[in-house]
Amino acid sequence: MKKQRVYVAGHRGMVGSAIVRQLGQRDDIELVLRTRDELNLLDTQAVNAFFASEAIDQVYLAAAKVGGIVANNSYPTDFIYENMMMESNVIHAAHTHNVAKLLFLGSSCIYPKLANQPIKESELLQGTLEPTNEPYAIAKIAGIKLCESYNRQYGRDYRSVMPTNLYGPNDNFHPNNSHVIPALLRRFHEATISNAPDVVVWGSGTPMREFLHVDDMAAASIHVMELDKEVWEENTEPMLSHINVGTGVDCTIRELAQTVAQVTGYRGRVVFDATKPDGTPRKLLDVSRLHNLGWFHEVSLEQGLASTYQWFQENQQQFRG
Length: 321
Ligand code: GDP
Description:
The chain is α/β, with parallel strands linked by helices. It has 11 helices and 13 strands.
């Protein structure tokens, strides 16, 4: 049987690299990868030329301009412009060059700031977005709507998945500028090594978050990409087609900190710094659509934190300096 030629856009990122680790083990798939230097996804002509010459069968669109709250607030143009350009270029070129299947990867920040919890897919466009990352969220919503529009107008089979908070290898472990899991793994690790009497965790410890290991995200993405078209169509609507990806389970930041302490072997005190922001009190996705489609997460938070901590220790040279 002829191998499927699968292009993973963004294969050096956290999610793209996890997808490549899994697809790389399949003998029915031939991966097609390009670094940013080899193919600039902001360049419409270059993207077109790539699709014209590569005979791609499937695309995982995991390339995105991403960043934390400070970056989103400081460079809103980069977040809306670059994401919309990359999505438009890749999705349009995929359609033009007859790519049968495409999976667009988004983010749970597409949902309104005050969405009902757990957040169903139908909460999309029901309220005002969180202002700090509105430009990024609008670009991601545009990506979903691009896929749906090509499906409606041209009968394409382009699907979208929206992950909850992800963590795992290749995450950003910057000391001040990362999400809570890499921040705490690093801080507890350093406190353990230096025998520090206490470790500071931001906020009150009471906010609740859902966390998904990126290997689970990759597995869910491949699962959704490979669902039969009839099954996918039965479980989605033409103008409400995106699928939440998460565990369906959340925990408090205090519980997370306790688990990180166990995983890193830290025995000192944990102190909560109430001068730092808590952010939204709860963010949990409703994953019944994904469960109905037959996918459930496999990596527990304890296992996922332990393996991510091991990865951090093996790779931490790159985070120094
Ligand atoms: P959010 O889901 O967009 O709020 O993303 P974050 O991962 O930045 O924060 C999640 C929660 O963890 C918030 O309530 C933070 O206050 C809390 N938190 C505790 N310690 C830290 C830390 O060192 N870094 C970050 N980013 N968040 C922390």
